[in-house]
Amino acid sequence: MAKKTTNKEDEIEKYMEKRRKDALKFIGKCLDTMASEEKLSNAPINQIASAMGVVMDKFTKKEEDNEGSLKEILKAVREIE
Fold this sequence. Notes:
The structure is a single chain. The chain contains five helices and no strands. Helices cover 79% and strands 0% of the residues. The chain is mostly helical.
């Protein structure tokens, strides 16, 4: 049974790697949308604070806590551009 799980995990990992650029482009679009002056000026303060908190949490995790560190994320975004 463990071998089957490993194969499924390998398949998922391969799929995720294939879609990495698409995912990073989508994240970039979402961040651009969230940062638009129109969206920010029309959003309630609690939604802005919540979105800011999520973005800060994701982008400021310690490198040893998460492989998706800010440095790695920015490197990947630069590669796409």
